[in-house]
């Protein structure tokens, strides 16, 4: 049975687009129009969920008949919430802060059925033990992985960022990259999208 609903990924992230392509289903990636600043009253999981939901909802008027995927990720370490550093200097600071520490990555997912006003939400928690890193190692990593500044905590786990990790505890290894594929498959099947 062909998939009838248009599928929209509310993200300009090429990492998340690559992840979604693994499912071999047609989709369109659209940059969401949504402010990603965390709120002081939120916990890290609440921030991730609100941002994932907000990204999906920001495209609802443009795609009133679509299924829209929104996702976001927040890192949490030593009582501090960490998002995307966006600059090399901030990435260096973040990685020094994370060096040798346990970091929790909260990866949030929303699937919005716009026409039927139905929403599925999930948050995946990934615990990561980071290696102790020297300044030289941090600088070398950021030189080779310039895109790391667009990743939560500057940890681009699908690339050389995997070398920063000593141990990982997760129910879905895809979630650390930013898109919890295992739960997304459940949501798509519930909405009649033939992914299997």
Automatic annotation (TrEMBL):
Its EC number is 3.6.1.-. Its main location: cytoplasm. The lineage of its organism: Bacteria, Pseudomonadati, Pseudomonadota, Betaproteobacteria, Neisseriales. It is found in: Cytoplasm. GO terms for molecular function: nucleoside triphosphate diphosphatase activity. The keyword Hydrolase applies. GO terms for biological process: nucleotide metabolic process. It comes from Snodgrassella alvi. The active site is at residue 72. NCBIfam families: maf. Nucleoside triphosphate pyrophosphatase that hydrolyzes 7-methyl-GTP (m(7)GTP). May have a dual role in cell division arrest and in preventing the incorporation of modified nucleotides into cellular nucleic acids. SUPFAM superfamilies: ITPase-like. Belongs to the Maf family. YceF subfamily. HAMAP family: Maf. Its cofactor is a divalent metal cation. Keywords: Cytoplasm, Hydrolase, Nucleotide metabolism. The keyword Hydrolase applies. It catalyses: N(7)-methyl-GTP + H2O = N(7)-methyl-GMP + diphosphate + H(+). Gene3D superfamilies: 3.90.950.10. The record marks 15, 73, 158 as: Important for substrate specificity. GO terms for cellular component: cytoplasm. This is 7-methyl-GTP pyrophosphatase. It holds the Pfam family Maf.
């Amino acid at each position: 049975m062909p998939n009838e609903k248009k599928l929209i990924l509310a993200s300009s992230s090429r990492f998340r687009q690559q992840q979604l392509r693994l499912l071999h289903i047609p989709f369109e990636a659209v940059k969401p129009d949504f402010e990603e600043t965390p709120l002081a009253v939120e916990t890290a999981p609440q921030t991730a969920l609100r941002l994932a939901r907000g990204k999906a909802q920001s495209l609802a008027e443009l795609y009133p008949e679509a299924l829209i995927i929104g996702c976001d990720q927040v890192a949490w370490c030593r009582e501090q919430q960490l998002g995307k550093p966006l600059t090399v200097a901030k990435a260096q600071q973040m990685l020094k802060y994370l060096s040798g520490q346990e970091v929790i990555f909260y990866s949030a997912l929303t699937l919005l059925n716009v026409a039927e006003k139905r929403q599925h939400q999930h948050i995946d928690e990934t615990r990561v033990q980071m290696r102790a890193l020297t300044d030289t190692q941090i600088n070398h990593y950021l030189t080779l992985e310039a895109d790391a500044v667009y990743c939560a905590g500057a940890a681009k786990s699908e690339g050389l960022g995997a070398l920063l990790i000593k141990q990982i505890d997760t129910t879905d290894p895809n979630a650390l990259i930013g898109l919890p594929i295992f739960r997304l498959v459940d949501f798509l099947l519930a909405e009649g999208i033939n992914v299997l």
